[in-house]
Amino acid sequence: MLRLRLAKNQQGFTLIEILVALAVAGIALTAILKAVNGQLVSAQIMEEKTVAHWVALNVATEIRIQPGWPAIGSKQGDTEMLQRSWSWQALTSGTPDADLRRVDIKVFNPAEAQRGGITIFLGKSR
Prior knowledge:
Blueprint: H1 15-65, E1 73-81, E2 84-94, E3 100-108, E4 114-123
Antiparallel strand pairs: 1-2, 2-3, 3-4
């Protein structure tokens, strides 16, 4: 039978030390994964807000290029951008200046959570 003998100054790790090291490594890896997941969720939200802003800008452009003066009231519609459906609502209201209209545009994602919006002012051309 072959026996390995350790010198008196050589010692291995005990089972407790190994378990503690594994626990510390597990906690660290969990924290890293949680941070990475948070970054991914933030990036997805930023992407949705950016696309919603683009949709709002497109609706604002459509309102601006329509002939005539926009009527006071509400309009809504659906559009597709980046292979996703978006709903929008445009609320046109008057201002203290009779030659100026305010248009608030809100954009919603498919889950109906508001993801973006802008406000534009349109002047009456003479």
